[in-house]
Amino acid sequence: MAFQGDHKSRLPHLQRPLYQEAEPLTVKSEMMQQNTVPDTIAERRIQAEQPREARIQVETLPRPLQRHDEFLGQFTAMGQLAPPILDNYIAKEQAVTSPRFLRFTFSQCAIDENTQKTTGLPLAAVWHPLADVGPGEDAISILNKTPFRCNRCLAFINPHFRFVEGGRKCICNICGLVQDNSDEYFNDRDNKPELLAGTYEFVAPSDYSNRPPMAPLFFFCIDISAGSLSTGLPQQILTSIKGILDYITLPERCNIGIMTFDISMQFYKIGPTGEVSEILVTDVEDPFVPENVDGLAYNVAEQREQLDGLLDKLLTWEWTQPTKVNLSAGTIADACKNYLLKGRGGRVLIFTSQLGTVGKYKLTNRVDPKLFNTEKEKLMYAPLESYATLAQECTAEDVCVDIFLCTGQYADVPSLAALCSQTGGDLNYYPSFNASFDGERIYYKIFRILTRTQGFQAVMRARCSNGIAIDQYIGKFKRKGPVEMELSCIDSDKTIAIILKHDSKLQEDIDLHVQCAMLYTNQYGQRLIRIFNGLMRSTKIVPNIFKSGDADTIANVIARINAHSLYEEMLGTIREKWHSSMIQLLTTHRITLETAEMNKILAPENLRLLPLYSNTAMKLPAFSLTGVQLDSRLFSVHDLLGMSIHQSRLLFYPSIYSLHDISYQPHQPGTLNSSELLILPNLVCCSLNSINTNGAYLLFNGEVMLFYIGRNTNEEFLQNVFGISQFDELSENPEYWVLNDLGNDESAKVIAIVDEIRKRAPSAYPTLYWLFEGKGDDFILRRFMVEDATASEMSYSDYLLRLHKIVLNKVAERRG
């Protein structure tokens, strides 16, 4: 079922254990099954082809169908509107932080709160502290000295400090304080990164750390209960770890430990002659681990032989008398915090197959059907107080928790998500886990965790110039006081939304500054402070605000705000406010145009995709009204809170590439352009109206890829790509579901296209799934058809039409 072509240039090839046999795509996911009207692809296509009232030209509606395979050249960050998130460019900082690290919803800010409210849209920034720099971009400069700081607001010196009185004094761009200048910046201000680049970092003073930096440690905790063993989960995790060891970036600084659990905990040591001893801990109410972590974890470089030996032994280990129940994830995390990682910190990865009903932090089913659709429904969204407290304790010990939840049963996602997010980790959810379906996804996720850029012991905050202030932060972190965030671990996939507000009326046409600072320990053991400097401009002209809007960033922030609001407000109220914001946007824009044109849906050019993203986002489990179980909804919320703009853009509107006609597309997809970028195929709409029975398509939503093949796909295409021309024979023989170079142009192009899209993925290397028209369940295809109607949501065209009618009424009322 998964892609098996040669992609070693990016990641190691996944070595599947023998028990994982490929089989047709039949595994179900409740996240994907929520869109169930009509029941089949055929019924949906028939419905879509029914004659409709000629009231809107569907084919002309705004959609993000540009291919993003052209090189835009150098973008110099100076406070202007950033390039679209999927575009190819080289960011050159000139006093302002690269948009890879900091993107604003608007590059021009309203002069007061009331003017901003007329847009219906939030003033905010999305901060991506450890984002990877692009090819050809300058690395962040590291200073070996502590830069000058403002005496009042403590902002760090940056290119927007002004020097006056011949350089004897300087003016802080954040609070405006005039103060004596540091001698260092009096005569020599050239060639200093802190006065030239928007982003720089410096070595933190020794008193900025409460414990010495420790080498990264990853402790894997694997469920071996009967349910877990039946799915092949333990073997999958052990095989994945073994296959990844050769690709860890800094093996000399990486340590890995392994334990297993059911109703007890089992720790393993391997002796000098290869024998494995098992340490059994049965007191789960007050567990005591009698072995120091140094004896249970192995350095990937120096102790590779022992680590390989332990993995080999465990892969053939016979776990006798497996139990039907297991320890809770909280109990495992607490034991690791108290005995293994106390005083040194580390990352705990817990793989569990069910609701943990045993141990100090045991879980119970908290779902109460009587509370749904009431004011008290949000009580079920709150984590258990014990888990919230445990998360705080883990953060204090620099322990980060990742949980891989591999079950379709209720598992109290609110509590598990809180434990993960407040420590800087992630909850990874695999409903109805099946090794042949989800094994490769888990492999690539573990690979990402072990190899991506990350920092430890992080403390973060932002400062704003006069007139604006921080309203709130939204992300995965623990709040530290009124203005700071704290995380045990921060990685290159995490982002923070900074919601801004006016605290006074601004003058027109002035610069507004946001400075973000992060204290952290990098993977090399250096304690650093990284500084980011963002810039906006004030304006009283509403059309200028619209022109400066970044639709991808705005959509990301709106989704976060609404996801965060689910803990406080009813879903119906949140959705109503969301609709109102779109109505406010379109109404204000139409009034500012002063146009009499009433038969067109008018939206600001830069923001024309926002109604689309709103409609598609409301179909996510986090916001859908029907067919979503509690755990699925709260997992979706958890996922959105720290999601990057790149990821959310693909989630709100996936890319669907037309493959069957690549040989006839005029721009020659699958080849390199003049900038040595691979040209991608044409994109089609995310609607079944665009999926032809004689076509083959590659679908990508930022997480998974789907190769969809229509029943009447051209036989020559099938022969060239798969080496077999008959649809039925191909669909019934998984051994053909591979992309090998068959020595022809079409085969080479398809392989190149798949690999290129995977290289551009925003986080973990995506798994490729296969679906053949009329074969098996089509739930995964429906997941990509975000423009189509669902059981509770209108189609994109109907949603726009409804907005249009409401806006016309609003405008008529105002003009009447």
TrEMBL record:
Residues in Zinc finger Sec23/Sec24-type domain copies: 147-185
Residues covered by the Sec23/Sec24 helical domain: 550-648
Keyword RNA-binding: no
Keywords (A to Z) from UniProt: Protein transport, Transport
Residues annotated as domain Sec23/Sec24 beta-sandwich: 455-533
Domain Sec23/Sec24 trunk: 213-448
GO MF term set: SNARE binding; zinc ion binding
Superkingdom, taxonomy of origin: Eukaryota
Family, per entry: Belongs to the SEC23/SEC24 family. SEC24 subfamily.
The protein's name in its UniProt record: Uncharacterized protein
